[in-house]
Amino acid sequence: MRQAGWKRWLMQNTGFAVALLLLAVLYFAYNLIHPRGFSSAVAIQNANETVAIAFVAMAQTLPVLLGGLDLSVGAVMTLTNCIASELLNGSPLQILLGMVVTLLAGAAFGLANGLIVVYGRIQPIIATLATGAVAIGLALLVRPKPGGDVDEDLSWALTNAVFDFAETYGLADSGNAWWLRPFADIPVPLILLAGVACLVWLPFRRSVTGRTVYAIGSAEGAAFMTGLPIARAKITAFTLGGFLAACGGLYLAIQTSSGNADIQQAGAYTLNSIAAVVLGGTSLLGGVGSAIGSIIGAMILRVISFYFRILDIDPLLQPLIEGLILLIAVSFGAIRTLRVKNQLDLFR
Amino acid sequence: MNILLKYSSALAGLALSAQMAVAGPEIVSGPGADPECFAPWSTDTKYLQWEAREGPYRIAVVNGFVGNTWRIQMIKTAKAYAQDSAIKDKIAEFKVVSTGTDAPAQLGAIEDFINQGFDAIITIAVSPDGFDRVIRLADRNDVVLVPFDNVLDTDKVMQVNEDQLAMGKTWAEFLLKELKAQGKTSGKILEVRGLPGNSVDRDRSTGIHEVFDASGGDWEIVQVVGNWDDGTAQKVTADAIAVHGKFDAIAVQGGTTGVVQAMMDAGHPLVPIAGESENGFRKLVAKHAGEGLKGISIGQSPGLVAISMKAAISALEGHPMPQLISVPLPVADYTELEDGKNYWSDLPDNFFTVNEFPPCGVNISGPAIMAESEADVK
Hints:
The structure holds 2 protein chains of 2 kinds. By secondary structure, chain A is mostly helical. Helix content of chain A is about 75%, strand content about 0%.
């Protein structure tokens, strides 16, 4: 019975399982080749590079589960990045307040997206194309020139291992307490990512609203006929998406101790977030997948580019190779189509 | 048991803190090594000195955006220079990566090369800020970080660039000289600007305006935005000519070939022009200078990467280096153009002509760069 449950999970989450396996293989091999593989320094560096795109990929997951696309996630990340670069300094209380304001700004922007989609009855992809431009415009207003003044200690503490965090703030015997030892080498950014996934995503997924999001993506008509709260679920999904994008923007500000209203970077993050969502086993048709998968997808995306730094590959060929590997990786997710018993299943 | 754990953790902490002792360069007084090549930006520029270490060195170039001619030529120049007999024996390993316009990816790549134990990392920053963390890590690990072209707003690292303000001034001075030769002390000037919001665009434009304002003449300067791109510059120039009729001189930040093309297409009389170092622009000036297209060409050279590599090696050898290195402006006006020497009629129009810096011993010619194979990066 137990084994059957395990098998059923695998059947239902093939995409996610394949992504997880792919990540494990890619990352293990990377560490084998890296001259300082399996060390804390490498893990911290990798984690830092991955967090922002992982948050943005989580944000993208929600509209995709609904069966749409959000073209504003990168722009919201950029906007919140610029807001955070203005607010994250001063006393600890002020910094904390700055973080809250940043996250609320992202959530508010997501809420606006949701309201436009639901009550304006506009396709998400078009609505967010427009609001994305608005977000970039606001970001340029907040920060016309790159720069900012983010608290240095905060930046250092949150972009390193648990030990450095404790050392910076003089917690747990400046990081030397015996009970901290087992966790001392874990990168803080990974903890933040896991924290948001467990405290925000998992409860949401289990709630009625969360399950309604999946139902809408599977069959909106059926969900409506069942009496599920469709409008509420959509608005909540976009709001949560804005919140998660703001998490990415906030981390980016902490990581770079600055803000930058970079239009090209915003575009790159939006596109990469879609790639990460697909890599993580979420269907672009909606109704299947999870934000956890998107985190894995974002990690795969990053690990591919890690290889360019340890292997000798011509710099002008790197984008081509990255694209090819991405194509192959995405194709793995399509393996299930080879096994369907009924052609009609392909439309699901 | 607890005591044992406590001691071992204390020891581990000690080891960690010892490793984290802040190193990095010392601030010393000048003059630095090879001042002909590594000229300090100003008299206030401080000097940095790293501890000398044995070569050969491992060097990485972390590029950001890739996809325009300048960047591709820069990468090819880096590879060609790494093979140059002057420094070949000093380089044990040479890597180039491009991270796109993604700040975390660029920061990550730099940090990764620090972790891999590279000696020097050369980079074109995607943003003038946000590098505090990698600068801190580079100092702790005694890695020489050299931003060039788009430099950082910090004085903690050694940086290499050309003086953009001086470039703008030189352009304007040349135009004033040519206009004076025509007997003009007033008139209408077209200024084709670069990417908005960029410090290079701002500084070049400031330089142009400062000189024209100081000349005392009655100059009306019409500004259009050409994004340093031939196509855009050509279009906005055509529009400006259609609206204003005639200009007495033109100053172009980039996309100069397109501007000249637009001028010719519109049947605009050929007037003095100041522009970048595109091969196409130099070809046109060489051909039409007699008809009035008297041009000056100054370029932000992709060869800056070679000077940055040379500066990094010099720093690793323990020489004192200026914190901000000003590379002399590569200037050529219509009297100095010579086919096969500072422009090439057989190379494409969008090739950037200035790559050689004789005071630095950087002598990679255009054809040598174009011939650089794409096969290996060793």
